[in-house]
Known about the structure:
The complex is a heterodimer of chains A (242) and B (160). With 242 residues, chain A is α+β, with helices and mostly antiparallel strands.
Amino acid sequence: MHKSGAALVEVIIAVGVCALVIAALARMTMGAYTGTSRAADYAEATALASGGLEAVRSIAGRDFALLVNGTYGIGVSGTHYVFSGSSDTFGPYTRTVTVADGRRQNDDLLESGGSVDANTKRITSVVTWTPDGATQTVSVTLVSYVMNWRVYSSAASSLYSWGSSAPLPASSGASSAATSGGAASSSAASSAATSAAASSASAWECSSGASVSSGLMQECVPVMSSEGDIGGGPGGLFGGGL
Amino acid sequence: MKRINARDGFSLIEVILYVGLSALLLMTIATLMLRLKDTRDRLTRSTEVTQNVRYALSRIETAVRSASQITATQTGTLTLGSGSTTNYKQFVLESDAIMLRDAGSDYRLTSPAVKVTSLVFTNRSFPQGPQIVEIRIAASPVSGSGGRIDLKTTVSLRRP
């Protein structure tokens, strides 16, 4: 008869278990919210990273010879962009752009191997930051290629269309000669410069090398969507990884 | 009768314990729910602001890429030209919204729930280089806390 009611110990255990379950649920939910709320951070970081690629494109458009391999920050001199220091900051974000050799094999761009194309540079733009309440930094990495359009545009006029495959110098010897020629003619080509603005590279995108170190995003997404495309609803860009 | 009552029911101590413990439990759950709701509201506002700014930025980027010249930039206004037209499209900050001014008509690009606090265009073109414009957009929800976004990017013209 005495066993018909619940003993004190049983009640306490039951309440304890309930509390544990609730605490676990709360943690999970809060964690998911925190992850999603970082979507704004990613939007800001991706915009800044893509701005870095455009800035390099602008510097290359002025004079391709300015793209010396190395790691830089983007600064402003007068009214235009220049390489400055080894990184630059905007709010909580630190941006570094890296200029490296463009490598090709049979006209295809490669990350490694192949042979160096002196008229192509591989640009990596990395934005790093520490999210609120986090201890580890996260980063967004965008990769693009910039080509010496002065060399390419003299070879073919069809280049001006997007995504066309640019005719390439036959050998590295020929291309390096073309580079110096291109640099020397930079002032003479002023009228062409404004019109042919960096058109040689195909519409830029996040390459397969794009990554986010936190693992929240599976792959990088191009920042710009086509006209009228609002995206996949709230947090559409990053929701999939959570 | 008395014995049976004592065995079948709960003692006073037990009842007090039950009530006390369940009150604690309920209070914890209630607090948790309130916090979750608060977080969710903040997240909704943040998502709305982010989404709106991203959309407006994508429209600006598309327009810049298809323009043939940057006619004028100033705080809050970007004027783009195409061919012989010097005012092909214009983006302006008006009554806390980003507007697209196209052929005399204004199109609102951000929702009334979003307050665009700053829209700055800076022409970063080299005198003899590609045309390029730096864009900075700051926005926050019209009401409520959190959800502020401050974005800086650069777009260059693609069309010859």
